[in-house]
Automatic annotation (TrEMBL):
Claim: Nucleotide-binding is one of the keywords in the record: no
NCBIfam families: narJ
GO molecular function ontology, one term from the record: metallochaperone activity
Pfam families: Nitrate_red_del
GO terms classed as biological process: chaperone-mediated protein complex assembly; nitrate assimilation
Domain of life: Bacteria
Keyword Cytoplasm: no
Protein's name in the database: Nitrate reductase molybdenum cofactor assembly chaperone
Keywords: Nitrate assimilation
Source organism: Arthrobacter livingstonensis
Amino acid sequence: MNKRTRITYLAAAWCLSYPDAELVARVPMMRSALDEFAGALAPFEEVLRRLESQDLMAVQAQYVQEFDLGKRHALHLSYWTDGDTRRRGEVLGAFKKVYRGADILVDTHGELPDYLPMVLEFSATVDLAAGQDLLQSYRPSLELIKFGLLRDKLPHTHIVAAVCDTLPGASPVDEQAVMRMAGHGPPTESVGLDPYDPRLLPMKGA
C-alpha cells in the first residue's frame, strides 16, 4: 500500500505542476508505474492524455490560466485556511519545520513551502508519514481545491480526489460539509480562517 501511495503522490505532484518538456517525457514512466496497481492510473488518464496529444504551449497556457492567474484553484494549502494574512507566515514556517525535521534539504524551487505539489513530492520521496500528516492537517484545503476543480470541470479533479482517497476518513459530499469538517465558514482572502489544526500551533516559532 505504501508503494502505491508514494507513486500516486509523486505522479500527482508532477501532474499538478507547471507542464514542461520534462513532464511530457515522464508520461510513459507514470503510466507504467501507476498501471502496476488496479485503478491507480484512471484518475490520471485525462491529464496524461492531454500531455501526450496536445501542443505543449497550449497545455502550458491552459495551466497558467487555471492555476496561476487567479485564486480559484490555488494550490497553496494554507491559502484556504489563512488567506493572505499576516498569520500565514507563521503557518508557512510550520511547513518549513517539517521539511527541516527530515534532515534533507528541500529545494522549494522558489515556491512557498505549502505548495501542494511540493508537499506531495516530499511525502513520496522523503518522509511519507510526515507528509501525510501535513496533508491530513490540511484535508479541508485539499477538498476545497478538489471541489473548485470539479466546478470548472478540470481533469485535475480526479488527481486531487485520488490524493484525498489515500487519507483517513471519507471525503465530504460538498463544500459546506468541508466547512463543517474544518469548523469554519467559507474562507475569505482578506481575513483568512483561524487555524483548524491545533497541532500546528506550537510551531509558531519555526
